[in-house]
Each structure stands twice: as C-alpha cells, then as structure tokens.
Design a protein that fits this description.
alpha+beta, Jelly Rolls, eight-stranded antiparallel β-sheet, 10 helices, about 30% strand, Gly_Hdrlase_35_cat
C-alpha cells in the first residue's frame, strides 16, 4: 500500500510526522524469529494494541551465511514483512547495523568473519569492506521502503549499543556513510545504555545523529540522564527508549525470568508520559535452528535457549498474554482517542501417540550425511567453512598400554568421546582438557569425538575472541603426544533428508529418530521432549531448534506453517542415547520445575 501523498518525518525538539508532534509507540518483532505465515498475526496485534510502529533488527549471519552468498526469501523476506506492516498502517524502525546483539548467534555476525582479516566493530578497512559488500545487497532491499519512496521506515540505526563495546567514532561514521552512499536518507540514530559513559562512547551526537537509550524501568531517572547528556552538547531532542525491556531472555539450567504485568504497564506509562518507546520485545518468537546466542561469563559461556518468548506481550506462539491486556488498558486510559481492536488469537492442537518409525546411530549413517575432510591435526569449525551445528572428529589409536590417558586440548563447546563406538566421557567448556582414561582391548582403536557448537556470544568483550571459534582448535593428546591423521565430518544439520535408516542403532550413541504423523488439519503446537536428552528437532526437514533436558523448557514450538495436511515427518537428532517410542504434540509449552539458583 504505497502512499500517493508521502509522509514526512523530522527530528526537532519533537518527532514530527507531517509537521505535527508524533509519539512513537513501537514494538519489536523480528521477522527472522517468526514463521512468515504468522507475520500478519503479530503485526495486527501490535496495531490492535494502539501502537503505531514496528521495530526489527536485520541479522547479517542469516542474510549472508557464506561470504558472497545472500538470502532474502521465506523467513528472511524483510521487504514482505515491511509491506505487511505498512498495509496494516504501521510505521517501521529498521536496525540493519552489522551487529545486533539480540541474544542471537554471534550477535548477528556471520561466523566466516572469524577467518577473515580485520577487527570487527572497528574502522579497520578490511572489516569495513565486508560490511560494504553486504550493504551493496541489503540497502537495495531497504531503500524502497523509506518514507521518501512511499514506504513506512521512520528511522535507521547505525550501530547497536556500541558504547558498551568501543568508542571508535571513525567506525560509526563509516557505517553511516556506507548507508548514505547506497541511498539511505535517514534519519539515523544510535541506541545505548542511558548513562554518560556509554552515551559518550557510542553516540554520534557531534554529528547531529539522534541518541536513544535502552532500559526497562525507572524512566524518569534514565530519561533525565539522557537529557543531561543532550544539554552538555547543546541538544534538545525528543526522548526515546529504543529498547524498553518488558521481559528478559532465558538460559539453559536457569528458571524462566518473570515480570508482573501490572508493574510493567505502570513502568511503560511512566516512560510514555515523558517520551517515545519501543517495547523489546513485543513478540519474541523463536531461535530456530542453531541461532540462539550465548552470554559471556568469565571463562565460561552460558548458551541461551531456543524459545525467545522473552515474557513479551505476545507469547512465543504470538498470542496475547496478561501483559498485552494490561498494556491495552493502560494505553486506553492514557490515550482514549487511539483506536484499539480485539487481538487475534491462534488455536493450538494436541496430537497423542505419534509412533517411532525408524532409528539409526549417527555412526551408521555418517557417510550419507557428511563427507570427511582429512587433516593431520583437527581443524576448527570455521577453518572447515562451517558456521553452526556439530563436528565429528575420527582417528585411529594404537594400543600402547592397557589403559591410556586422552585429553582434548582447547575445544568448544561440548565434547563427547567414543572409543570403538562406546561412550567414554562428556565434557563441557571448562572440563574440556581434563584427563579421560580409556581401557584399550584392541590393537587398533577407533576414537570419535563429537563437538557441539552451542552458540557464540552475542554481547561483550568476547565478541571477536578466539573463544568464539568452535570445534577442536588445538588437538587431542594420547599420553603426552598430539594424535594425528584425522577424518573430520561436518554436521551443520541444515536438513536430514540424507539420513539412511537402513543402518544399525546402538544404545548410548548419538542417533536419528524418525516419527510420522498424518494430519487432516494443522495448527500451532509444541513437541514434548520429555524422555530425550539433548539435541535438535526437524519438522518436515526444518530445524526448529535445540532441546535439553536440563530445562527450563522441555518442549519446542512448532508453527502451523511448518506442518501440512497429510503425512508429516518429525526427526529428532539426539546425542545422549535417550529416546521415546512415541511422542506427543501439546497445545502449550512444557517447563521443568526449577528454583532460583538451581543449576
């Protein structure tokens, strides 16, 4: 729905839309976390709340997963997402910065950057060349959706919370210039924590670029800090919280983070009385595939879960929660002139007793799902050109003694070692490198090591550290020497069509389990992963994400759009040797009971 009379948007002492003061009431919906069939549902519910704008990040690692190979179809069709928003009467804020954080794999950076020259998030010319190549393609998708072109984009972000990482202003100017050279007119903005140190380091206030803040409470204090920073630079700008955190993300082994609905509504009301707001998140959605991020904590990294429910006003499925209705009441009280509608609610289905059809050990189908790469010493995932998933390393070990000590030197993130197909040890991050004693009863013995990349950090000082290279990065020692002559099987698991179930299944080995279900109608649902250990699930060859019995979630969301009438195939890749003869589809997510502080 292109406008014949183009809107104008300006940043003066107020936001001005067509010359009139305009309060931005925005909600974050990441198109890449929501199945495309559900974009309308989520955007409609945002408009129905009385909000006028949608905000989204743009993930570089999905749009350019391999250097020079670009993808903008299906769940990555940013243009279609913006079009649906415009058809519903929503404006848009787009954040196509090279780095997005977003609790997303590597903060949105493509993993192949780890093998390239150039310091990321800096004015290093080698890095900026990669950004420029990406922007050559991306900005052609964004440019037609600017207000000046009849589209709905109000503002464009230059960088994301850069003040929490660096202070290289030449880099910020370079990113802005790369956008402008490719037809992006702005207005531009940066977003940072609201205190002076981050605002000074991460803003472009000297360049007259709007400064916005990120926080989730205490709007008066935080906006006052921002106003003070503005005044120091002679600016009187409208105040905006670009990320008002209405919930929080979750990590494995930790309880779900909770926030009271009425308390949130009061906190948002306080913010709206002073400035504009973008609710982060409005609909959180799902980290499909291997796209969950990871929190950096000293020497250990803490991976985040598949669900990005976030405790948002719309739940993972996209349906309104108590927070939605509390916000709806607050908006009506504060702005009774804003029209509101009843939100859309999707149905969910239950399917019991879906039988197991086939099962096969990974080792028995290895040659059909991966072709080995030979190397004298183990290579990292990035050296092998793989971004995410698993790597299986295989070599032969000669018997020198009845009992031998093995050590994996410098591996990430989780290692499972097998001797002649029998599981010997599982090690995770800080345990990797500890002794593994094995008993040798053959003259020659097969050693297999399955390494899982559990997600790269998305925030902080480790963003470009060697710790974000995955797999075995130094080698494997037997006794006091490094072992050589390795076969390396890449397992990105972008699909499971090549799994051959005619092979054998062995207990305690990583394995594939295939289930089939005939559906006469489809709806959203959650697959119950009770009784499984750890792994990923594929629905009709789509990787819907990771599961792990440590909690807090014990189910995975399946959008209706990934199901079909007729026969549906569900494949579970499980690494702990645990499975169920039948599985169930649930109408609601399933959680593990956990107490605060429990690990």
């Amino acid at each position: 729905m292109r406008r014949e009379l183009l809107d104008t948007f300006e940043i003066k002492e107020d936001f001005l839309l067509n010359g009139q003061p305009f309060k931005i009431m925005s909600g974050a919906i990441h198109y890449f976390r929501v199945q495309p069939d559900d974009w309308y549902h989520s955007l409609y519910n945002l408009k129905a709340l009385g909000f006028n704008t949608v905000e989204t990040y743009v993930p570089w690692n999905l749009h350019e997963p391999q250097k020079g190979s670009y993808h903008f179809d299906d769940i990555l069709n940013l243009e279609r997402f913006l079009e649906i928003a415009q058809e519903l009467g929503l404006y848009a804020i787009v954040r196509p910065s090279p780095y997005i954080c977003a609790e997303w794999e590597f903060g949105g950076f493509p993993a192949w950057l780890l093998e390239e020259k150039g310091r990321i998030r800096s004015s290093d010319p080698a890095y900026l060349k990669h950004v420029a190549d990406y922007y050559d393609v991306l900005m052609e998708k964004i440019k037609p959706h600017q207000l000046t072109q009849g589209g709905n984009i109000l503002m464009i972000q230059i960088e994301n919370e850069y003040g929490s990482y660096g202070e290289d202003k030449a880099y910020l100017r370079a990113v802005r210039d790369l956008m402008k050279e490719r037809g992006i007119e702005g207005p531009f903005f940066t977003s940072d924590g609201p205190w002076h140190a981050t605002l000074r380091a991460g803003s472009m206030i000297e360049e007259d670029i709007l400064v916005t803040g990120n926080f989730g409470s205490k709007a008066k204090e935080n906006f006052a800090d921002m106003e003070s920073f503005f005044a120091e630079h002679g600016k009187k700008w409208p105040l905006m919280c670009m990320e008002f955190w209405d919930g929080w993300f979750n990590r494995w082994k930790e309880p779900i983070v909770q926030r009271d609905a009425e308390e949130l509504a009061e906190a948002v009301k306080e913010a709206l009385a002073i400035g504009s707001i973008n609710l982060y998140m409005f609909h959180g959605g799902t980290n499909f595939g291997f796209m969950n991020g990871c929190s950096a904590r000293g020497v250990i990294d803490l991976p985040q879960i598949t669900s990005y429910d976030y405790g948002a006003p719309l739940d993972e499925q996209g349906n309104p929660t108590d927070k939605y209705y509390a916000l709806q009441r607050m908006v009506h009280e504060l702005y009774p002139e804003i029209p509101q509608q009843e939100p859309l609610i999707k149905e969910a289905m239950v399917v019991d007793s879906i039988p197991l059809q086939d099962k096969v050990s990974l080792f028995a189908t290895l040659e059909t799902v991966s072709q080995p790469v030979k190397a004298l010493y183990p290579q990292s995932m990035e050296e092998l050109g793989q971004n995410t998933g698993y790597l299986l390393y295989r070599t032969t070990m000669v018997k020198d003694a009845d009992k031998e000590r093995l050590r994996i030197i410098d591996g990430r993130d989780r290692a499972q070692l097998y001797l002649n197909g029998a599981h010997q040890a599982t090690q995770y991050q800080t345990e990797i490198g500890e002794d593994i004693f094995v008993s040798l009863d053959q003259a020659e013995n097969q050693v297999d090591i399955l390494l899982e990349n559990m997600g790269r950090v998305n925030y902080g000082h480790k963003l470009f550290a060697d710790t974000q290279k995955k797999g075995i990065r130094t080698g494997v020692m037997a006794d006091l020497h490094f072992m050589t002559e390795w076969l390396q099987y890449g397992l990105p698991l972008e699909g499971v069509a090549d799994v051959d179930y005619s092979g054998t299944w062995q207990p305690q080995q990583p394995s594939f389990y295939r289930y089939e279900v005939e559906l006469t109608e489809t709806a959203d649902c959650f697959i119950d992963m009770t009784g499984f250990g750890k792994g990923v699930v594929f629905v009709n060859d789509v990787n819907i994400g990771r599961f792990w019995d440590v909690g807090p979630t014990l189910s995975l969301y399946i959008p209706k759009g990934y199901l079909k009438t007729g026969n549906n195939e569900i494949v579970v890749f499980e690494t702990e040797g645990r499975y169920q003869p039948e599985i169930q589809l649930l109408a609601k997510p399933l959680y593990k009971e956990m107490k605060e502080g429990e690990k």
